[in-house]
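We give its fold:
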Amino acid sequence: MGLYERRLEKARQRAVCVPFSVHRPYVMMSDCHRGCGGWNDNFAHNKTIYLAALEEYYDRGFTYLELGDGDELWENKRISEIAEIHRDVFELLACFLRQNRLYMLYGNHDRKKCCGLKLPGGIEAPVCESVVLKDCQSGRDLFLIHGHQGDLMNDYLWGLTRFLVRYLWRPLEQLGIRDPTSAAKNYRKKERVEKRMANWAREHQQMLAAGHTHRPHFPQEGEKGWYFNTGSGIHPYSVAAIEIVQGRISLVNWRQAPDERQYVRVVKEVLGGPVGLFS
């Protein structure tokens, strides 16, 4: 067993088990990278879209699973500052938590949250590395991770990489130089990470959903669905998500668009699916 396989197996062994119910809807998002509201807060551009989507999911009774990198703690030092700037988002997350409808995973950019996340109202959201969405009827499950596991710079040496991003690559990016350690910004690295996750899922016949690369993925029609990717919340002018409704999984995209009266509204389009998840 290789290093990458051992790393994923360890994450699976430590996963929080969430019972799956066909009568309960679920939504997965990742890589929102909530920041402190400054020029480098990529989330700020899509905040209106994200809030509109999350409010609808809350009103419709969805369970929200955030697959890591929800907050940007490489470029920003304190989660308290992020929570203050985006207090409305954190208050909504607290509403999900009070109804036991919130599961938060940490990624490489918000690994500091592994001990928990304080939300408005004095409550603390548990944060874990991985989740298994378990269907007791079929015995099958969907394994949820961020996707950085097994990567040298983003997993084992994440502290060093955070230092380099904060003090070296962040200022260099203003000059147009891309961070070579980032799977989201480096195309070749993105391809390697996605191929590795997809191969592992197929070889182990284990359905896997992740984020990390910022590129949504949904199996093509007729293709066996082993690997899914939630995309990100900071793609220009859109927020991607994966929904599971009545046991059927789909990839959706939220964006702003004018209606017939030319009023700008937040709308949802289905990019893939829906198809049966465990059937």
Q: What stands out?
A: Residues 37 and 44 are 6 Å apart (CA to CA). The mean pLDDT is 90.
